[in-house]
Amino acid sequence: MTFPVQAVMAEVQKRIVGQEAMVERLLIGLLTGGHVLLEGVPGLAKTLTVRTLADVLHASFSRIQFTPDLLPADVVGTMIFDTQHQAFTARQGPIFAQIVLADEVNRAPAKVQSALLEAMQERQVTIGGTSYPLPSPFLVLATQNPIESEGTYPLPEAQLDRFLLKVHVGYPERGEEREVLMRMSQASEKIPVQRLAEPEQVLAARQQIEGLHLDPRLADYIVDLVRATRTPTAVGLAALEPMIAFGASPRASIALAQAARAHAFLRGRDYVAPEDVQALAPDVMRHRIVLTFDAEAEGLDTDAVVEQVLRAVPVP
């Protein structure tokens, strides 16, 4: 049972113009079991892309709009009284879907974020003292708007670390934006897409990805990249030392290896190459590095740190 990578990508593109990198990162998250955080301004088709991917993969889909008045029970579910049977029963929340879109996740308070992230980590939810397993495959795709701060609750670094990837979603090219305009002015209904894969194929592809060959030298390369964010002086980047408060954790090494394997799988290879690691390093590490006030004063962001590290660490 093979996973039709190119067919799925092409089918998603029937609705989504451009944004190939975002679609590819979403597939990487799905094929590794890692959750993805999408950051971009409104109107870049983040929600439509996630919904389209669920349609193509024949996966159950749920969208949760995060707001300041949202409660944990609104996400995971709660106990309700059944008058017919005179007993309390568990009503499962929208988290019980294979693909869950947590829209504007930074608009909900910490207790709601914690409930979501606990489900992401444990793959189960406890309601009324009983634990209920979440569907498999299970993937949370969260979005947040980077330009708004009023009425938001930024995710703490420890919670950001739970996401496999943090993807920056940018504006489309001029030609792509024109194509979006023409499609929207001509189509009165949502463009239909075919179901090309089943959730079982996703699970089978995960096993294939886990078996992809990762050369020991590449494993050393991944570890060196991640460790360079903690001790940049060791790779000749002494100027970065006062700029980094905390480097990426060992979870970043694991995530980078997983993501690189999935990237190689999408390229049709049965082995991981250095370019797979380099392509995913920014998405894996940008939310796992904490900068100092000196860095903010210098206008330095985590992407620039990762870029310098990639240039400094020798490629095997």
Structure explained in plain terms:
This protein has 316 residues and is an alpha/beta fold. The chain is 44% helix and 16% strand. It is built from 13 helices and 11 strands. The chain has helices spanning 5-12, 20-32, 46-56, 72-76, 110-122, 157-160, 174-186, 199-210, 216-228, 250-266, 274-285, 293-298, 302-312, and strands at 36-39, 61-65, 77-82, 87-92, 99-103, 124-127, 130-133, 139-144, 165-168, 244-246, 290-291. The model has no long low-confidence stretch (mean pLDDT 85).
Poorly predicted regions are none
Number of domains: 2
CATH superfamily of the largest domain: P-loop containing nucleotide triphosphate hydrolases
Span from first to last CA?
34 Å
Number of helices: 13
> What is the number of E strands?
11
**Which fold name is given in CATH as the topology of the largest domain?**
Rossmann fold
Structural class: alpha/beta
Brief sketch in words of this structure:
The two termini are 34 Å apart. Helices cover 44% and strands 16% of the residues. By secondary structure, it is of the alpha/beta class.
